[in-house]
Amino acid sequence: MIICPCAICRNLSPQIDDDLEIHLMRYGVDPDYDIWCAHGEDAGPSTQVVDNESSDHIDVDYELPEFIEEEYKKKVEEAEVPLYPGCKKKYTKLSATLILYKFKADNGLATESFDELLEVFKDMLPDVNTFPESDYTIKKFLKEFDLGYKKIDACIIDCCLFRGEKKKNMQNCPECNAPRWYVNPRTNEINKGVPAKVLRYFPIIPRIQRMFLSASNSELLTWHSTHHSQDGMMRHPVDSIQWRTVDQKWPSFASEPRNLRFGLAADGFNPYKNLSSTHRNDIDVYLEPLIDDLKELWSNGVEIYDAYKRVMFNQKAILLWTINDFPAYGNLAGLTTKGEFACPVCGPETFSKWLQLANKTVYMCHRIFLAQNHAFRSKYKWFDGTKERRRRPKIFTGLAVVLSLCHNLDVMHIEKNVCESVLATILDVNGKSKIDNESHRNLELLELMEDVPNDEKRDKLELPYAPYTLTKVKKPKFCGKLYFQRFPDGYCSNITNCVKLQQCKIQGLKSHDHHVLMQQLLSVALKGLLPEGLRKAIWHLSSFFNELCQKGIGQKKVGRVGR
User: CA of 438: how far to CAs of 231, 315, 433, 458, in Å?
Assistant: First the structure.
């Protein structure tokens, strides 16, 4: 393989002969590549500045000051010291510190209790050890690695952050006039200097700089530039449409493989597990510091030392994806995900109905996404009493717009919700069943039910089993198949502990358990218990998630799975 000097690769990625020829014919030689030092020509002076007007990044042949490099190496060596002589390799000063600090956060330990626990553990170890002495020493140790955080005062009801030139010295919230400082609920005395609410922000720029100070990490951060898929399969984000859209829109950004592309995951954010499910979700306010850092990384970039190539360069970054569940989708994308117009694709054309007795909105326009000649479009009695004649709405992709921030829904979260709903339906779980007197009355109001019983008979009516629910005889058989199933170590958790044979209930499953159940076990466990048509429908649903979760998936298959 030969290092490619084209205007895109710029001597950063080797190519085979055929690809090299294609690159040179399509993109031409890098116009600033005057001295062919990467191909044997004498490079001349050791200090060279490459300033490409068509590119936003600058590489400087630069030696990091010895005291900075030595200081970093010293920190790394100190962190990798074993916990005590003869200790297992996986327990070092850094790993033990992180494990203990996570334990403190997960269990909500007070600082005093945590310090006492550290003293007990340190006394149990040999005299020569690197075990942390207190919570203060842990914070001081992590601070040296730029793993600290910034404290930013926030409004008590999440209106704003007290930051920036205008707000950092304010004593009251400019939106609601609430005091910035803690108010004693008994005396109503304002404790000035004690903030009512604090945001702890972990800045990303120092962490990026620290990653590139490690030669091995710096090399791995450019792995994507030489590992594109060659067979049309998507195995890595670099093979996605959004990635290629950025490359086409901003070629100067794409020409520097060290530029980063971020994904923002915002699912299940609940620090220390002390927030209720009904707390306010003004996530846009608390994202302000992160957004400012992202703007700085995109507009101006930051100067970073690359320990692998031993040069200074201008680091830029872009936010390419968000990953979240459906409610967070609405918060991050600024869309409505509940109520009358809950579908982000259909928008104002969402077909919804309000069920008066159930006191909720239902969405019955799912047939619009079927092919125009699909048989279900004309089966009005099976659905909402109407024939579906509308065309499928257009779903925009990265090729249809200049660039869209792609909001990705967390497939594991959705798969878990779907699996829970399927289990609750087939087991006829009380409160989650789809067949009861209330459902019958809603069908009456929608004029979708024949042979309606009168009010006198309704209370005495014993509802028959729906074809999609298991009878009292079949429920133990279904639960028994899962209860007596055995799995290899590490395949999933012990599902036996989650199956209650006497009550015919399944509860306590984790997300990965639902993943295994949905894709591997559900169709098999229901064999002989449900009608063939229903089992096929569940099998197709399982196949959909199975294909979606493969390590590699072709773009044509993505379109077929979406249909």
Answer: 54, 60, 11, 11
For strand 499-500 and strand 505-506, is the pairing parallel, antiparallel, or unpaired? antiparallel
Quick check: 454 and 475 in contact, CB under 8 A? no
Helices within 427-527 (DSSP H only): 437-445, 455-458, 474-483, 511-516, 522-525
Distance (Å) of CA 427 to CA 85, 340, 465, 481, 530: 56, 30, 11, 14, 12
Quickly list DSSP for 251-288.
Answer: HHHHT-TTSEEEEEE-SS--GGG---TTS---HHHHTH
| Lookup: tokens for 56 | 């936003």
Over the stretch 75-132, which tens digit does the pLDDT of each residue have?
777 777 888 888 877 788 888 888 888 888 888 889 999 999 999 988 888 888 888 8
Q: Please, what is the Cα angle at 381 between 377 and 385, to 5 degrees?
A: 80
* DSSP state for residue 372 in the 8-state scheme: T
Task: Give me the residues paired with residue 553 across strands.
Answer: 234
Angle CA 333–336–340, to nearest 5? 165
Q: Is 382 exposed, middle or buried (0-12, 13-18, 19+ CB in 10 A)?
A: exposed
Helix (H) or strand (E) holding 201: strand 197-201
Q: Is the pLDDT of residue 2 over 80?
A: no
Are 179 and 196 in contact by the 8 Å Cβ rule? The answer is yes
Q: Which residues of 11-42 are buried (b: 16+ CB within 10 A; e: fewer)?
A: ebbebeeebbeebbeebeebeebeeeeeeeee
Tens-digit pLDDT profile for residues 335-355: 778 888 887 777 777 778 888
* 280 — pLDDT class (breaks 50, 70, 90): low
Share of the chain above pLDDT 70, in %: 78
295-324 CB burial, b ≥16 within 10 A, e <16:
eebbeebbebbbbbbebbbbbbbbbbbbbb
SS3 104: helix
Q: Residue 431 CB: number of other CB atoms within 10 A?
A: 6
Residues 6 or more apart in contact with residue 425 via CB below 8 angstroms: 432, 433, 434, 468, 469
Q: Residue 407 corresponds to which tokens in the numbers above?
A: 């909001």
- The pLDDT of residue 399 is 41
Q: For the residues 538-555, what does the mean pLDDT come to?
A: 85
Pairing mode, if any, of strands 352-355 and 181-183? unpaired
Other beta carbons within 10 Å of 6: 22
| Residue 276 binned pLDDT confidence (cut-offs 50, 70, 90) | very low
Instruction: List all residues 6 or more positions away from 271 whose beta carbon is below 8 Å from its beta carbon.
Output: 105
